[in-house]
Amino acid sequence: MSIPRLCIMPIVPNSSAFNTRRLCAVAALCALLAPTALHAAQQPPTASPALQKQDASHDDVTVRGTHILVNGRPFLANGAGGRAGFEDLARLGATTVRTYGQDPGPVLDAAEKAGLKVIAGLWLEHPRHGFDYLDTAARKAQLEKLRPMVERYRNHPALLMWGVGNEMEVAVSDEEARPVWPAIEEAAQFVKTLDPHHPVMAVTADTGADKVAQLVRHAPSVDVLGLNAYGDSLLTTADRARAQGWKGPIIFTEMGADGHWSVPRAPWGAPIEPNTTAKADKMRQYLQRAKQQGIGAIPIVWGDKQEVTPTWYSLLLPSGEWTETVGVMAELWGGTPPGGPNRAPRIEGLNFEGPMSFPPDGETRLKLTASDPDGDPLDVTWQVMAETTAHSVGGAPEPVPPSFPQAVHEPTRDSARIAGLPPGRYRVFATVRDGRGAAASINLPFEVK
Question: What is the pTM of this model?
Answer without folding.
Answer: 0.87
